[in-house]
Amino acid sequence: MASTIRVRAISNGEVTEVQALIQHPMDTGLVKDAKGDLIPAHFIQQLTFEHNGRTVFLADWGPAVARDPYVKFSFKGAAKGDDLKIAWVDNTGATDTMMAKIQ
Amino acid sequence: MTTDDSLPLSRRLVLKGAGAVALIGLGNLALLPIPAIAAANDKYPENAFKQKSDADAIKALYGRTAEASDKVKLDVPEIAENGSVVPVSVTTTLAGVTSISFFVSENPNALAASYVIPEGTLPHVANRLKMAKTCNVIAIVESEGKLFSATKEVKVTVGGCGG
Predict the structure, then answer these.
(1) Interface test with B, best of A22, A49, A58 (most B CBs within 10 A)
(2) B113 vs A: CB within 8 A
(3) With a threshold of 0.90, does the pTM exceed it?
């Protein structure tokens, strides 16, 4: 299966700007489907970004984060060509992980 | 692979594999000693996400109240036609920022997202939130143990929380 995570991490030499887009329904558990049944809550709870084994950004999310979540942040201390590890876990225990190269 | 010699080895490999999966999947539950170190600060704030009002959610997440600060710059659209995708970002000139959180006051549960900002990460986060109706978006910045907030109203044309 193709990864659910798309990441662009660009370093200007000092600061690395990271933009991530994740495919996930982020169902709140409040919305009904066409038959009138509630769609159960299904959302990412934690998203982590690691550089050289160090967590550089950690997101705790509730269901109020929009579907197919997007997040942007910047951190210092990385160089072009370094690996950035991205992982998420949702409220059903499902996970996905990917490694991205900092450009 | 079915001889007596290789069986314990392959079983160990299977267990190792299971451990690796648990590290990724259950790390936030602190079931294993290694992620427990990281999980001390990084545990998912389940209780704060269950609170209905923004005041209760802030109290559950941080255990104290925030003061409004013009050093917290909250960027939201004035009018959001679609409440299910509202771009929200915050940046601050405060030093020593350790976390940034977003609250939507009239959502079923006010806390939308909370971000841990380790040293070396800039205090600037952009994301996209759902909003049930026209209400305030509150950004909280934790800086050197104190809480600073910025609040802005967003007019929502079509709510994005269903129901």
Answers:
(1) A58
(2) yes
(3) no
Is-contact B80 B155, C-beta < 8 A?
A: yes
Count other C-beta atoms under 10 Å from residue B50's C-beta. Answer: 13
> How many domains does the structure of chain A reveal?
1
Token digits of residue B132: 């049930």
- Return the DSSP state at A32: B
Write the pLDDT tens digit of every residue in B75-120. 999 999 899 999 999 999 999 999 999 999 999 999 999 999 999 9
Whether chain B has a CB inside 8 Å of the CB on A70: the answer is yes
CATH of the domain at A61: 2.60.40.10
Domain ranges of chain B: 6-41, 45-158
Which class does domain B45-158 fall in?
mainly beta
Q: Is residue A2 a contact partner of residue A23, using CB atoms and an 8 Å limit? A: no
Range of the domain at A44: 5-101
Q: What residues pair up with B81 in beta bridges, in sequence order?
A: none
